[in-house]
Amino acid sequence: MGLMRKYAHIFLCGLLLAACTAVPQPQEELGAVLFTAGSEDPATTKAGVPYMARDSRFVCAMYYQASQGLDGVVTSTFQVDNEVGNAVGTPSFYWHNRLTHAFVALADYNNLDSCPAWDASYDLTRGARTSMSEQPDPILALTLARPAGSLPEANRVRLYFRHQLSQIQVNLKAGDDNSARLEARQIDGVELLGVSEEAYVPTELSADGTLEAPSARPVKLDDYSDAHLRENKWGTSFPLFEMEEPAMGYLKSFHAIAFGRLSALRITWHEEEGNKVVHVSTFELPEQNESHVNIRDLRSGMRYVYDLEIRRGMLAVIRAEIKPWQQKEELVYGADGTITN
Predict the structure, then answer these.
(1) If exposure means fewest CB atoms within 10 Å of the residue's CB, which of 14, 52, 118, 339 is most exposed?
(2) pLDDT average, residue stretch 159-166
């Protein structure tokens, strides 16, 4: 906590370029801080703000410039109590002065009815999970605000949450060369090779008023046996979850939340005639796609979509798209494992 306060003090003093003139206690006439929680800033999108669903919870830290040259930070749990994202805290926050305050808020998009661990790593391994909606999906908001009006509503703080990790989607169909005549039931699964099993999302404000980018625990190849590395030289193997409905024109689609460095995709399918041979095809990703964008190092808040053809003995990449992972509907899944751009 001492380090956090030190950072908050450096940031706020530097940002405001002002002497520490705040009163010792919150100014009662400024009142409580009112919050609205949503997922996108309307200034950056043509769509309306998708508010966080009623009863959703998040943890928020408020940094402020306190009295006698000291800095302050308080943390509280908030819950959305209506249909337009308004949230109340336990306890509530109060404006401490008319200087800039910084608000850092964290929620788990896949578990909005409970509060996330404030400073913890996220286990992304599949384990006993059966869908992407059971994975951790940390979303984070950072807002700088100061009370500018005389009424509490005029000083409402709007929190715009964004996904912190990456989403991977793989769409599969039979190749146009008809070398592998496939039906959906013959596709057994898709694996990501080389991705990290654990990710960390920083929530501590740095000296310049920003947050560090999320990080992934590096894969240590020394942890794996030679026999394992002969089968998978990238170490980790992460099975994706089958989507309830495939993308249009494809036999099956799979997806998951992941982070780190994605080195390859491995597809398993089987023949149904004769001796029912099982085929395992691995596609090692290039460093860049056809648009010269890095597709191996997964970026925070991005969605990667791979359209693949299965051909006998190989995989062919039709398209590898990277787009912002945005939510234009309510911050709650309407169906298991579904995310809408």
Answers:
(1) 14
(2) 94
